[in-house]
């Protein structure tokens, strides 16, 4: 274990890394991933190790590449390494790049010891999870443990037990022989036992103990399962080294956490900044289409809902929505391949953006469909803009090797309608545009 309350990379790493050589094929990697229930596979490259993810597999297959290609022929996502003794507080900055989903953990000999994910690091700085890493030996204040002889009179024990957590340990010939708790006292009083008898006659035996090398979490679970109020902690020679209650276990954990807040104030301040930066980054990524860089359906839905709210709060003029679809996009993919189709999507976004205002919002609705939110735009203005966009796309020949056209539906928001109704109307207008021969603009019915 580390000498700090924060675990090290080695302590939270997933061991037994499944890895292969760079000469393995994509097909080999798939078999290894499936048989080991993994979503990633590590393989060796000249620079060290690289990682092949399920996302890589999906993209690779989508682009129609051969599954017999060797892993070393791919552009590698190199595994970033950290030392196994590296404190987890220092690991988060390594995850700033979205390609760094995992870190390789090297042992003292420089060998790959395990893998650590971003989730592992975040979980390890949770005080509740820390209970899984800290042992009783590390938190227990060792001292002389009071015991009494089994020959002591039962009556004398009564005075030593007041609170429910209290317990008296009974020793015979230097060995732990039994325990007396307040629960035992209740039983003895109920049964009218002879209090002048030796305590060995009425003690509970054998005594359940827990080894000092067990974790705090294991100790708490030990108490819960057996419905005990305290744990009797023993060393490897089965000698009692302490007694600790469940309340004390939790108090120690959170007490140490509070101390560390002060001790590592600077590091934790940096940690919070990294978390906030990563959180903002992840939030932005969740609203962005990865291929085109424009917004996604979730983002445009949020933008439309916000615009509806402003429409009523500020009595703003109506806004409009465009929904456009690339004509015969499947044929483009089938004829020229998916990479070519991806370029069509990206080029289309650049063309559309040139016609938009700073207040307008472009988003990929899904597949080859795109939506454009136009604040303070009437239906006629939106339809006029849609026609300009349609002409630009047709005339720009995106990309140069192919003539691309789009069909567009337009709709103006109506007072009182929901987001769903607005989307249904503009979708119906788009459908009519495609039914009318494509490469045309149809406004929604009033």
Automatic annotation (TrEMBL):
Signal peptide start-end: none
Q: Which keywords are on file for this protein? A: CBS domain
Q: Does the keyword Coiled coil apply?
A: no
**Residues covered by the GGDEF domain:** 317-446
Provide the Gene Ontology terms for cellular component.
plasma membrane
Looking up PROSITE patterns in the UniProt record yields: CBS, GGDEF
Q: What highest taxon heads this organism's lineage?
A: Bacteria
**Catalyzed chemical reaction(s):** 2 GTP = 3',3'-c-di-GMP + 2 diphosphate
The record's annotation in Pfam families points to: CBS, GGDEF
Q: Which GO terms describe its biological process?
A: cell adhesion involved in single-species biofilm formation; negative regulation of bacterial-type flagellum-dependent cell motility
EC number(s) stated in the UniProt entry for this protein: 2.7.7.65
Q: Which InterPro entries match?
A: CBS_dom, CBS_dom_sf, Diguanylate_Cyclase, GGDEF_dom, Nucleotide_cyclase, Rev_trsase/Diguanyl_cyclase
Q: What is this protein called?
A: diguanylate cyclase
């Amino acid at each position: 274990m580390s000498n700090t309350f924060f675990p090290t990379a080695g302590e939270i790493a997933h061991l037994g890394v499944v890895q292969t050589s760079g000469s393995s094929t994509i097909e080999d990697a798939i078999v290894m991933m499936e048989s080991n229930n993994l979503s990633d596979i590590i393989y060796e490259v000249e620079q060290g190790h690289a990682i092949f993810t399920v996302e890589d597999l999906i993209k690779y297959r989508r682009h129609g590449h051969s599954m017999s290609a060797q892993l070393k022929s791919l552009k590698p996502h190199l595994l970033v390494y950290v030392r196994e003794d590296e404190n987890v507080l220092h690991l988060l900055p390594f995850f700033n790049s979205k390609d760094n989903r995992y870190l390789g953990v090297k042992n003292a000999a420089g060998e790959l010891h395990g893998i650590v994910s971003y989730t592992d690091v975040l979980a390890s700085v949770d005080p509740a999870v820390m209970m899984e890493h800290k042992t009783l030996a590390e938190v227990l204040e060792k001292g002389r443990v009071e015991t009494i002889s089994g020959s002591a009179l039962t009556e004398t024990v009564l005075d030593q037990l007041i609170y429910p957590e209290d317990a008296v340990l009974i020793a015979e010939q230097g060995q732990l022989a039994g325990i007396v708790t307040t629960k035992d006292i209740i039983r003895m009083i109920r049964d009218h036992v002879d209090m002048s008898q030796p305590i060995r006659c009425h003690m509970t035996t054998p005594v359940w103990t827990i080894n000092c090398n067990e974790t705090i979490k294991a100790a708490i679970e030990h108490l819960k399962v057996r419905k005990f109020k305290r744990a009797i902690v023993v060393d490897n020679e089965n000698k009692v080294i302490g007694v600790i209650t469940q309340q004390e276990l939790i108090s120690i954990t959170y007490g140490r956490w509070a101390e560390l807040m002060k001790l590592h104030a600077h590091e934790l301040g940096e940690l919070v900044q990294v978390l906030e930066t990563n959180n903002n980054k992840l939030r932005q990524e969740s609203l962005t289409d990865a291929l085109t860089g424009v917004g996604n359906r979730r983002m445009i839905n949020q933008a439309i809902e916000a615009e509806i709210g402003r429409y009523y709060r500020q009595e703003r003029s109506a806004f409009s929505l465009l929904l456009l679809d690339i004509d015969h996009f499947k044929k483009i993919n089938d004829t020229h391949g998916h990479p070519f189709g991806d370029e069509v999507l990206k080029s289309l976004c650049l063309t559309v953006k040139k016609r938009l205002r700073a207040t307008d919002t472009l988003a990929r609705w899904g597949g080859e469909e795109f939506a454009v939110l136009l604040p303070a735009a009437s239906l006629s203005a939106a339809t006029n803009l849609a026609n300009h966009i349609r002409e630009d796309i047709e005339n720009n020949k995106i990309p140069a090797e192919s003539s691309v056209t789009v069909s567009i539906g337009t709709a103006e928001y109506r007072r009182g309608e929901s987001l769903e109704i607005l989307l249904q109307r503009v979708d119906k207008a788009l459908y009519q545009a495609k039914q009318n021969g494509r490469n045309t603009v149809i406004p929604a019915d009033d």
